[in-house]
Amino acid sequence: MISSPDRLFHILDPRQFSRPLLDELCALTTRVRSIAKAREGARALQTLLSNKRAMLYFTQPSTRTFLSFNNACHVLGIRTSEIRDPSISSEVKGESFEDSIRTFSSYVDVIIMRTWGEGMAAQSAALMDRIRRPVPIINAGSGKDQHPTQALLDIYTLERSFESRGGIDGKVIGLMGDLKRGRTARSLAYLMKSYSDVRLVFIAPEAFRMESPLKKHLSDNGIEFYETANLSEVISELDALYVTRLQVEYDTAEESKGYDHARFTVGLEQMKKLKADAIVMHPLPRGPELDPEVDSDPRAMYWRQERNGMWMRVALLVKIFGVENALGEFC
User: Fold this and answer.
1) pTM beyond 0.90, yes or no
2) Catalytic residues
3) Where do the H-state alpha helices sit in the chain?
4) Domains of the chain, first to last
């Protein structure tokens, strides 16, 4: 089922989002979190989708994404079921992945999934589009592939951080770390096609540079980007620095052994070189690439970024089920 500007169904890839839809989702996120601040508003939100059920199929480890989706469902009164270990499902008896997904769809109204394998959310959506009672598939992270809802909360964090400076348009955004295997940085970079005069700086060692398909996409959409392995030569130009960790879970041999963390780390010395009104983001969990001493700097946005995740996912569920107009009754 194809999403339209007025309706979302499956959420699979950041490239499906237009600028008007991104702006709408950001506004909707701010609206629902504002409603939830009052006790009466929070209670009203819990009635909004209390007739719906969600399956959280998370067979790849997750803390933030799982908890934020689970709590986003609870904010809206959606009841949740979960499978976090395929060894306790019928897949160990030989049931195919597609049969498992079709089974879930018989019991719930939306399937939110995170998997080790790339393309599995898209495979599930294609299955749903062939059956009589399809339910939305939300890609909550597919291998090294894409993480569209993380990209959406990142966009929201950037917009909120730059709301007094004209938003994301015209900003210089650095993405640093394991860009080859980091799906969060890739998904965020794909969304830049919707913004004007944005410049991207990819900061990574040669072995972990952003791969060619993403760079071709940027070139095809007229998005300027620059690659370097030297943070110090670009840090003073950045409006935002998006730091990512080394994705050791995807090592097939010893790829990560030659990674020099010291060259791709943000600490107090790097913060001295960053603009006074710039921000630092990180999708978490962090490793040695982000010094905890940075946490107290007002430019550190990653804990706010994490908090924003739940509210953006609330907004997505509101949009998917088409109940955004009902929010007017809560104001």
Assistant:
1) yes
2) 64-65, 93, 114, 147
3) 19-36, 39-48, 64-75, 97-107, 120-128, 148-161, 183-191, 212-220, 268-273, 302-320
4) 14-146+309-330 (3.40.50.1370), 148-306 (3.40.50.1370)
